[in-house]
Each structure stands twice: as structure tokens, then as C-alpha cells.
Design brief:
Blueprint: H1 6-26, E1 35-45, E2 48-57, H2 61-68, E3 73-83, E4 91-105, E5 110-115, E6 118-122, H3 125-132, E7 134-142, E8 152-160, H4 167-170, E9 182-189
Antiparallel strand pairs: 1-2, 2-7, 3-4, 3-8, 4-5, 5-6, 8-9
Length: about 190
């Protein structure tokens, strides 16, 4: 019977640690998938800078199966507007966020989309997904708050928010790329 030496145990431990670190470093690279930003633009109207976006969402089989079983999923869009500064970190001028809840109701065989306190029902998943993946004339900031001599940019992200899933479903989702839907982009803004 072979008994491992201390040196062999340390070597095996370090090998295992390196493997875990490699997996953790590779996992974020898999994040942005299943979502394509078709349109992302800012506009200036009535004294405000607004954001319009349209995303094309392709749900993986695991997410679609969970939805069909009545598990609600949440999509989050976040936009942050920054002012460029050469001497320090860029200054955040505005931050806005929206969260949509998408759920299938098996008793009525329809799909429900909720945004804040408002809800709407749809007969198909495609129509419901179309609603949660777009927003028009979304107010970012009042132009009066901006110094027009400076340059600004917007960091935008749209993703499936797994932190709002029921507790038992969150356990073990860390390494599953099926639930890592998202896209992000940076956009220059003219005040």
C-alpha cells in the first residue's frame, strides 16, 4: 500500500487549486450569450436624453423548460451615463434600471409580463419576449444637468437576472452557461 508523502499531497492540492482558478477565470468569458443588441441609441428630445434599445433574445432549452413549468424569470436592463475626466475616474452622471418579470400561467395558457406595477398578458412566448427585450424613449438624464462642453458615454447592459430566481433554483447555477444570458455595450453621447 502506497502512502502519499507531504510533498505529493501539496502538489495535488496546488494542482486542484489551479484547476478551480482556471474554471473561475474562463466562466466570465461565457457570460454574454443568447442576447444580441439589435438597436441601441440615444436621442435628445424635450430637454432630456433618452435611450432606445431592441434586443434579440434566444432562450436556451433549460430556461425555456423552467418557464414552461411556471417558474418566472427576470430580465434587467441597466444604463449608466458617465462624464469623461482625464484626471480621475469618470464621473457617473446618471444611473437607471428596469426589471421585467416574465411568467407562464399554465391554467390560462398565457404569458404575463410585469414591469413595476403594470402587467400585460400575451398569447405566445414570442410576443412576451418581444415586450421584455425592448424599450423606447427611456429617460436617462435632463440636459440641464449636463455641462455641454464635456463628453459623455453610456454603459448599457441587458441580462437575465438569476438572483431573482427561487432559492432552490439558484443553488448550482454558478457553472451553468445556459442561464448566463446577457449583452453589454458602450455608446458615446452628444449632449
Amino acid at each position: 500500500m502506497h502512502v502519499p508523502t507531504v510533498r505529493q499531497l501539496i502538489k495535488q492540492g496546488l494542482t486542484a487549486l489551479l484547476l478551480v482558478l482556471a474554471v473561475l477565470l474562463i466562466a466570465p468569458a461565457v457570460r454574454a450569450q443568447g442576447v444580441e443588441l439589435v438597436t441601441l441609441e440615444t436621442s435628445r428630445n424635450e430637454g432630456t436624453i433618452s435611450l432606445d434599445f431592441v434586443a434579440r433574445v434566444t432562450l436556451p432549452k433549460a430556461v425555456e423548460d423552467a418557464l414552461q413549468r411556471g417558474v418566472p424569470v427576470y430580465f434587467v436592463a441597466e444604463a449608466q451615463m458617465f462624464r469623461n475626466r482625464w484626471y480621475w475616474r469618470d464621473e457617473r452622471v446618471a444611473r437607471v434600471s428596469r426589471s421585467w418579470r416574465l411568467a407562464y400561467r399554465p391554467l390560462t395558457s398565457d404569458w404575463r409580463v410585469s414591469l413595476g406595477g403594470l402587467s400585460q398578458t400575451y398569447p405566445s412566448m414570442a410576443e412576451a419576449l418581444s415586450t421584455v427585450s425592448r424599450s423606447g424613449n427611456w429617460k436617462l438624464v435632463d440636459v440641464a444637468q449636463l455641462d455641454t462642453d464635456k463628453s459623455f458615454y453610456v454603459e448599457f447592459s441587458y441580462r437575465l437576472d438569476t438572483s431573482q430566481l427561487p432559492g432552490p433554483m439558484q443553488f448550482g447555477l454558478g457553472g451553468q452557461s445556459d442561464w448566463a444570458l446577457g449583452a453589454s455595450r458602450t455608446l458615446k453621447v452628444e449632449p
